Amino acid sequence: MDAVDALTEIAFWLERQLAPAFKVQAFRKAALVIEPLSADEVAERARTGRLTSLKGIGGRSAEVIGQAVDGAVPDYLENLRRTGAEPLAAGGSDLLAALRGDLHTHTDWSDGTTSLDLMVATATRLGREYLAITDHSPNLTIAHGLTAARLTDQLDLIGAINARHTDSAPGVRVLAGIEVDILENGELDQEPELLDRLDIVVASVHSKLRADSLSMTRRMLAGIRDPHTNVLGHCTGRLVSGTRGVRPPSDFDAARVFAACAENNVAVEINCRPERKDPPDDLIRLALDAGCLFSIDTDSHAPGHLDFLSYGAERATANGVPADRVITTWPAERLLDWTTAAH
What CA–CA distance (Å, rounded) separates 337 from 333? Predict the structure, then answer.
């Protein structure tokens, strides 16, 4: 087995099970260290016990590399594959099988942990039909949000990746997108002419989450009514677990917000992150009754998170959301026809 592939896959499985970041990064760093080396040099270092003299190669990663060089699937990877064989969630299997894509993901262009290329490669391996890259907008400086110039550069990169696809090697279709902040005044945090060029715009609130209900409702309604908005991201902003602690949901008039989503053809995101579970179940049902469409998205910040779709499928199914009301079950062409026609 290729040693870089082995290390990369180990990192995927660890991310999928929400292992500590330092543990994941140890394998990702080891992969980056040996990737430029020739196969002969890696094999020679493995045979002579000199792998750990390379900065970034520890004992466990050296063991993985050595077993891969010897032609075996490393034991550590084999164990992770075995434990990861079952779906992350018990329910929603039919809806999960119907999901074609993911409209909310992050790369190291903003606060994701890996490259755009690696996220695309992982989505391809998972059988996704399409993947939207939605890095943050400029206002979210803590997440290294994309300026207009950087977003333009990313659009060029996405175009180049899609141009490499052929009939014999189609790959996942990469959609140009953004997770754009809904600013306090309700405006979207990116230049309108750039938003015009995107396939998908996920609009989310990331600041002043404890604002009063009237202010938050006005802010969200303005963002939803912006003709560029396609998806309302993690609408309550809550956190129910995880390293960032817990955070209560924002206070807003959900009935008015979901009515505006239905009226303006904006899908309500069912965010798959286990620390978010956003919206709560009662709001999923309220949005369903309001006639909303939904988008089941991973909000991935690492390749292993791309498998979180099962969490969203389970929650959508438990709350009675039919598959055709979920835009991420639609083929890419239908989805893009909808984003164009809706606005």
Answer: 6
* 221: nearest Cα among 258, 251, 253, 257: 257
Query: Is residue 211 within 8 Å of 237, Cβ to Cβ?
Result: no
Distance CA(67)–CA(256), nearest Å, equals: 58
From CA 106, how far away is CA 123, in angstroms rounded?
A: 13
CA distance 204 to 235: 7
How far apart, in whole angstroms, are the C-alpha atoms of residue 64 and residue 94? Answer: 36
Question: φ and ψ at 58, to 5 degrees?
Answer: -100, -175
What ranges make up the beta strands (E) of 182-222? 200-204
**Which tens digit of pLDDT belongs to each residue from 21-65?**
999 999 999 999 999 999 999 999 999 999 999 999 999 999 999
Rounded to an integer, what distance in angstroms lies between the CA atom of residue 49 and that of residue 63?
10
d(CA 224, CA 105): 20
Ordered by where they begin, the domains of the chain are 3-83 (1.10.150), 93-342 (3.20.20.140)
Is 0.85 surpassed by the pTM of this model? yes
List pLDDT tens digits, range 219-272.
Answer: 999 999 999 999 999 999 999 998 888 999 999 999 999 999 999 999 999 999
Q: Tell me which long-range contacts 54-57 makes (C-beta under 8 A, separation of at least 24).
A: 56/29, 56/30, 56/32, 57/30, 57/33
191 class by beta-carbon count within 10 Å (0-12 exposed, 13-18 middle, 19+ buried): middle
